[in-house]
Design a protein that fits this description.
It is globular and about 65 Å long. The chain has 13 helices and 22 strands. It has 3 domains: 216 residues, FAD/NAD(P)-binding domain (3-Layer(bba) Sandwich); 111 residues, FAD/NAD(P)-binding domain, CATH 3.50.50.60; 116 residues, Enolase-like, domain 1. The protein is an alpha/beta fold and 467 residues long. Strands 1, 2, 3, 4, 5, 6 and 17 form a 7-stranded mixed sheet that branches. A 5-stranded parallel sheet has the order 8-15-9-10-11. The relative contact order is 0.12. 31% of the residues lie in helices and 25% in strands.
Length: 467
């Protein structure tokens, strides 16, 4: 029987990063993965493949505007979806292979199969051929991630009525893609197929898309995507999704009680994700699971079984790969007797559309609800020399600061390269910077990052220089 100091169930970003950190700290470490490839949802059917398709479709869209830059392309520009999907898979394979390399490099034992508890210190690994083995471990980390959610009345056939997993490997560009859910995943995949020529309609129950982010970002992204041709039906409650042949009919009720009907050839159901604990047998380890399917943990991510921990999508908090990674490292360091800490308020959120959307800290809505006196400063990308030079003038940066202390409480941005720019805001807030601190830092010219400095100037004394 194999014995380990730490065993991680699940090889997504939280799991494999935790395994690496455990190995670095001297623990004999194992990781269990039910699929044949490592990396979990993020690397295989989530973050990485969706970004690969977003990049490919972005290049195609950019090509349509090369003439604006004095570049003339002769002949018809065509989309080869099969080749685009194949490239996406190559990126996935390379990335997953990289995780396998890291496991080998750090002497981490990999078990392929479904991990299920036999007790708080033993896990059965059931392999694809039905055989199984038991491994013993002093400590166990649950990192089993999440799966796409569904509405109870929708029958997913994974052919025409699909989830994000199937949307990453379509064999044709939809004529009309009806997306149920206006969150991050739906909007990102919607823009992929919009660029490739599909008509895209988004049905959202809330009164705006990306409802978890600052309302100003939602408003701006809606405006930009409408300009690109995407259609939105917000404040609409889906009543039914039916398929007849190659036609999918979606019926939804608006705020007035009226029923609208949308017909498409595909419908993407993107209504969030649920924690995945199927087959885990958590009760055998004495691990409590909430009514929502989440593993109960304390502030140290420790479950009701003292030697069992849980991280990532399977516990409370945002379902983000980088949040899972931070938690994986934190647990490893706790086991080593260290005292790590995570500030969940400073976990950034990103939407990888173009323009990109990114945010960290409190939204205006949250500050108002909490009765916090604040001041806001914004700066539009269209006032940036770099944005005009590249033709990426949509968007803005908004900084929210405490009205009395000037400490930065939230940064919200939409525009080119915001997925990378948000790191400056996270760094500043980690060191509890004031808006004036940021405004006095030199930013290279011309860059997109200048928008952060200008927004900080605007928040400090309404003294942005270039508007």
């Amino acid at each position: 029987m194999s014995q380990f100091d730490v065993t991680i169930i699940g090889s997504g970003p939280g799991g494999y990063v935790s395994a690496i950190r455990c190995a670095q700290l001297g623990f004999k470490t194992a990781i269990i993965e039910k699929y044949s490839t490592l990396g979990g949802t993020c690397l295989n059917v989530g973050c990485i493949p969706s970004k690969a398709l977003l990049a490919s479709s972005h290049y195609y869209e950019e090509l349509q505007h090369f003439a604006d830059h004095g570049i003339e392309v002769s002949g018809e520009v065509k989309v080869n979806l099969e080749k685009m999907i194949a490239r996406k898979q190559a990126v996935v394979d390379q990335t997953s292979g990289g995780v396998k390399f890291l496991m080998d490099k750090n002497n981490i034992t990999v078990f392929n199969g479904v991990g299920s508890f036999e007790s708080a210190t033993s896990v059965k690994v059931t392999k694809a051929d039905g055989s199984s083995e038991i491994i013993e471990s002093k400590n166990i980390i649950i990192a089993t991630g999440s799966k796409p959610s569904n509405l109870p009345f929708i029958q997913l056939d994974k052919d025409r009525i699909i989830t994000s997993t199937e949307a990453l490997k379509l064999k044709e560009v939809p004529k009309h893609l009806v997306i149920i859910g206006g969150g991050v995943i739906g909007i990102e995949l919607g823009q992929v197929y919009l660029r490739l020529g599909a008509q895209v309609s988004v049905v959202e129950f809330m009164d705006r898309i990306i409802p978890g982010m600052d309302a100003s970002l939602s408003k701006e992204l809606t405006k930009v995507l409408k300009k690109q041709g995407m259609k939105f039906y917000t404040s609409h409650k889906v009543q039914s999704v039916e398929r007849a042949g190659d036609v999918v009919t979606v019926k939804a009720e608006n705020a007035k009680g009226e029923i609208i009907t949308l017909e498409g050839d595909y419908s993407l159901v993107s209504v969030g994700r649920r924690p995945y604990t199927d087959g885990l047998n958590a009760e055998k380890a004495g691990v409590k699971v909430t009514d929502r399917g989440q593993i109960e943990v304390n502030d140290h991510l420790q479950t009701s079984a003292s030697n069992v921990y849980a991280i990532g999508d399977v516990v409370r908090g945002a379902m983000l790969a980088h949040k899972a990674e931070e938690e994986g490292v934190m647990v490893a360091e706790i086991l080593a007797g260290q005292k790590p800490h995570i500030d969940y308020n400073l976990i950034p959120g990103v939407v990888y559309t173009w323009p990109e959307v990114a945010a960290v800290g409190k939204t205006e809505e949250q500050l108002k609800a909490d009765g916090v006196a604040y001041k806001a400063g914004s700066f539009p990308f269209k006032a940036l020399g770099r944005a005009r030079a590249g033709g990426d003038t949509d968007g803005f940066v908004k900084i929210l600061a405490d009205a009395k202390t000037d400490e930065v409480l939230g940064v919200h941005m939409i525009g080119a390269r915001c997925a990378d720019l948000i790191a400056e805001a996270v760094t500043a807030m980690e060191f509890r910077a004031s808006a004036e601190d940021i405004s006095r830092m030199s930013h290279a010219h011309p860059t997109f990052a200048e928008a952060i400095k200008e927004a900080a100037l605007a928040a400090t004394d309404n003294r942005a220089l270039h508007v």
